[in-house]
Specification:
- The chain is α+β, with helices and mostly antiparallel strands.
- It has a domain of 44 residues.
- The protein contains three helices and three strands.
- Strands 2-1-3 form a three-stranded antiparallel sheet.
- It is elongated, with a radius of gyration of 13 Å.
- The termini are far apart.
């Protein structure tokens, strides 16, 4: 399955408690993304990660590598009246 087949979901990403495996080569973007996640107490929304110019493929790599956990969240838009 290619990364382009993975749908993007709005949710929160946070660092994994115990990474299952290390990614092959440390790349500056991966390190910068992980540092952002590590300094965020409650994780970061996908929109924030994308605003910092991280790609969806990079976020998927972090999750597949066991370095981050993606949690889907329900969002309500508009006035709830």
């Amino acid at each position: 399955m290619a990364y382009t087949d993975v749908p993007s979901a709005v949710g929160t990403l946070r660092p994994a408690a115990a990474p299952r495996l290390a990614l092959a080569a440390p790349q500056p973007d991966r390190r910068r993304a992980f540092e952002l996640l590590a300094t965020s107490r409650d994780g970061c929304a996908e929109a924030i990660m994308l605003a910092h110019e991280f790609t969806v493929e990079l976020l998927v790599d972090l999750c597949v590598g066991g370095l981050a956990i993606a949690t889907p969240e329900r969002m309500v838009a508009g006035d709830p009246r």
